[in-house]
Amino acid sequence: MYQVMVVDDEPAAVNLIRTVVEKKIDRFTVSDTAYDGKEAMEKIKEARPDVLITDIQMPVMNGLELVRMAKELYPGLICVIVSGYQEFEYAKQAIQYGVTEYILKPIVPSDMRKVFEKIGEKLAVEYYRQRNLLIHRMVNDIPTKKEEIGRYFQGGRYYGAVIRRNGLPCHFADHAKTEVFSDINEWMITYGRDDQETLYLCPEEIVCGDYVEMIKRQIKKEQPEAAYETSIIFRKSVPGEEIGIMVRELYRVLDGSIILGKNQTIIADDGKDFVLETDKNYDFLQNLEYLAKGQKFERLKKEIEGLIQRWDKENRTQLWMESRVRQICYMLQRYGVGEADYREYEYLLDEAFVNAGSWEQLFTSLMDIFYKDQKEDTLNLHKQSTEEYFEKIKDYIQNNMAKPISLQSVSKEMGVSQTYLSRLFRKYEDISFNNYLTFLRMEKAKELLKSEDKIFVKDVAEQVGYKDQFYFSRIFHTYTGVRPSEYIEKEKR
Fold first, then answer.
1. Mind giving me the DSSP string for 156-206?
2. Which positions ≥6 away from 126 have C-beta within 8 Å?
3. Among 22-26, 87-91, 348-352, the least confident range
4. Among residues 277, 252, 280, 254, which one has the least CA distance to residue 265?
5. What digits encode the pLDDT tens for the residues 227-256?
């Protein structure tokens, strides 16, 4: 509910506006009223409303002065002026203070409704932005006021769960660009560190029966393409101010539980203490270093393959395996094997773990990183520049985005390795393959939604490669700031 403050020196006008807002307009409620600008200013500081509706002509402090002072303190406050035709000069002055909406006297309920529809669109965008920033601060343990938490989490107590499709978020590649947020649907808040993840925050009041079973059904319903999935469910509800603690625990368990290629559902608060694997034994490096020193590369490859296969059978977590793979990388670098650039290594290792659905795929990618990709030489033999070839790759993606394509499928189709494909995207687009694919799909979705023909969101989702329309809507809202249905209405105007 968005909070509205009404300010007018005429009680009848205040009552009329209150009645129209509460009876005729959804998602808005009148939280407070005042009869002059000075009184209103004091109440604004306490109540922090979303919308201020004020008459211009009032004693003590007029509406324009009130708007000026309120906007200085709270720039995001939406101010609506109530004025007559004869007060046009006042209205022009109000524009300078950031007023964009007006209600003309005598007040007509249908006109007020139209004004509030516009306000609702603006507030929705800002509301979700602010709430997502709040979630981000809470998750990262940045001090947050209790009043602010109560403003954006009004459900009292909340359950939580997180699902991760494939591996952990990239640590280095596109790090600043990957964080993905989403809006609130009919009953649940969703959020994610990238488009392969969904964090569910569910108000206790809407839960009927067993929350664990309910969230399992929700997870099953939302099924984007994935090689494997890891779900962490927090069984106990927590008050709004403890959401950050709960989410950090969910992420801690998630990040320490993901096993390459293995589907898992874990209850985070089942009474068992979750302990990360902390084994620091790197004795296996001695034999690898001996082989690298002697330039015995074929034996080295077989040894690394055997290690990764063994770790897979032991159900070692991604974090545990990553630490060992990085140690191998650094050791090989010392002996002139693989990439010389540290940042390049980190980027490619990120991509390798994110896109691998099995230990075999991981091993193939690692070999490409360690020994470089021989496909570069193949391209040169055909006297075709890498830039020209990359354009062909982009054309293929554009023409096939409705299919469940991935880094693996495109690399196979185009005859290059996943690692080499990742290098091309970094070199020519400065973006990861996954982010580029999302960009193309969202731009295509916008084109389809803008078309003259009547089209359903479900059909658009399918045409741009999403089996689940709800997941598509979440990503679309993240990308554009509005839901697909809202985007259609916006384009019709």
1. SEEEEEEEEESSPPPSSTTGGG--EEEEE-SS-EEEESSTTEEEEEEEGGG
2. 76
3. 87-91
4. 254
5. 899 999 998 899 988 999 999 999 999 999
CA distances 165 to 143, 162, 189, 197, 477, Å, are 30, 10, 18, 6, 19
Return the closest-CA partner of residue 2 out of 76, 73, 75.
76
Closest CA to 171 of 356, 365, 316, 319: 319
Phi, psi values for residue 430, rounded to 5° = 55, 45
Residue of 259, 271, 374 lying closest to 314 (CA atoms): 259
Q: Which residues contact 415 (CB under 8 A, 6 or more apart)?
A: 375, 378
Tokens of 74: 């709270």
Exposure string over 402-423, b if 16+ CB within 10 A, otherwise e: eeebbbbebbeebebbbbbbbb
* Reduced DSSP (H G I as helix, E B as strand, rest coil) percent helix, strand, coil of the chain, to 5: 55, 15, 30
> What is the Cα–Cα distance from 217 to 346, expressed in whole angstroms?
37
pLDDT tens string 305-341: 999 999 999 999 999 999 999 888 888 878 776 655 6
Residue ranges and CATH numbers for the domains of the chain are: 2-127 (3.40.50.2300), 155-267 (3.30.70), 284-377 (no CATH), 388-492 (1.10.10.60)
For residue 29, the 8-state DSSP code is E
When computed from its CA atoms, the radius of gyration of the chain, rounded to whole angstroms, is 28
Which pairing describes strands 2-7 and 28-34: parallel, antiparallel, or unpaired? parallel
